[in-house]
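Researcher: I'm comparing several assemblies side by side, and this is the next one on my list. It has 595 residues spread over two chains. Same procedure as the others: predict the full complex and return the structure.
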Amino acid sequence: MDRAIIVDGLVKDFEVTEREPGLTGAFKSLISPKKKIINALKGVSFAIQPGELVGFIGPNGAGKTTTLKTLSGLLYPTAGFVEVLEFDPWKRNPEFLKQISLVMGQKNQLWWDLPAIETFELNRAIYDIPTRSYNENLKELTELLDVEKLLNTPVRKLSLGQRMRMELVAALIHKPKVLFLDEPTIGLDIIAQQKVRDFIYDYNRKYNATVLLTSHNMGDLTNLARRVIIINDGKILYDGAFEDLIMQYAKEKIIKATLSNENNISNLEKIGKIKKLSFPEVVFSVPRSAAAVAASELLQNFPVDDLTIEEIPIEEIIRKAFKSEPKK
Amino acid sequence: MKKYLQIFKISFEEEFAYRLNFILWRIRNVMQIFLTYFIWSTVYSDPAKQIFGYDRTKILTYVFGIMIVRALVLSARAMDVSNDVASGNLSNYLTKPVNYFKYWFTRDISSKVLNLIFATVEFILLFLVLKPPFLFQTNIAVILAFLVSIIFAVIIYFLILFLLSSIPFWIPEIGWGSHFLVTVVIVEALSGSLFPINILPQGLQSIILATPFPYLIYFPVEVYLGNISGWALFGGLMVAASWVGVLWIFLNVVWQKGLKVYQSFGG
């Protein structure tokens, strides 16, 4: 098997009922509901190799989650070909389901009123995990995610971050070969985000698991994914190495300097395009190749206290990638 | 099989997590029995009086029989399925190697076991308080037929609930409306949990007996009381079995169609 996931020309349409606001609207939709077709995916194609960790990014409603749901067999494709681990996800073959896992940041599978360990025990039975490997997996996962002490606390008493980590334990207790993560860091604080991220990275490495994750959170991608797929409006805009994306859309670098006095300040324009100047801070945007020269000139000719050269923020790169798509 | 045992266990534990809820539900059941008991007790205040072919002993046995049969048949969890479908929670089960029907059937059974335990205690208490005349069935054949009719009743109710719960695939906002209509209004009226079906006019009776509803409560209770036997018993069991078949096929068709339009809401 040289491809863990194959998607070819995937199309998914939803039928939704539109409703005008207010009571009158409610009555109108009761009598003659207005149906509208939404084209969530308009012919998406990509392939992922076993062991790859791929970031799936795009604005809200771009079709990221719809793709993940189709890959995990929840949604019936309107058209196109989908294959995961050589199975047709929609058929939901138990052998297929035993090898995948879908984690949705805003959905929980843990039993709300019971301690998390109960859900794990249930999953042990559902996935038919031998007791020994279950105990090993449980120990390992709870240690990695730092939740051993919370196993017997009712889920409703856990914090969001603790719960999310428990969700990961529940989702991974059967050691899936393919992992679909939908916004795994949503709503978490920076530290919790980092814990979850490190864990995903380790899991991918250690078990050579195929991971497909969607995120709004650019940090997730900078730290995790070698390859990114950008999706917008149901179509793929970019599919390739993360570094190439930066090269393609981040042709410039950012130089930030702090000046010690206002001498010579009117000559700053000679260094490069000034993005922002509010003394003592000055921010330039210079071509990638000229960044080093510009920085040294700045240091030689101006009273610089501090200087940094940075990449364009990833959010901006994505925005540029989206803009370059011609509007219909 | 092991997985369903585990589902049974966790389901049972969860019922205990909702202790207050459960107790209120039991109180509702006891109140209902009281109400039905006193209505009929008043109607049949004269022990010699016979109405609709029932005398005081028979009707009060019927009322007490309802108590146990209700606990067995009408305590079910499968109405929660509609919520799973509408909220997208169903996704959690569809991505796991578990049969969703069996999953809920197991949860139904765990709920029934718990309810049966309580119903038995309530039965003994009410029995001691009200001292009603009650027929203890000793005929093994009748008890066997009663058990078969109970199994059919349990399955029919499960299938009805599941079918109702499939509506949100198409109309996600329907929620409890349809359940209220069917489980509270139709089931209560037509299943025989308020009055025996055979007190109704003959024509109406035959119509109701052709629907699946009387096979939930009325039919099993009557079988227990020994009022239905021989060919009538056989025929009744056949009708119940046919309903099981029809509803099962119908549910499978509806469910497969539902999954195709399933949108996995919420996230």
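Model: For your comparison table: The mean pLDDT of chain A is 85.
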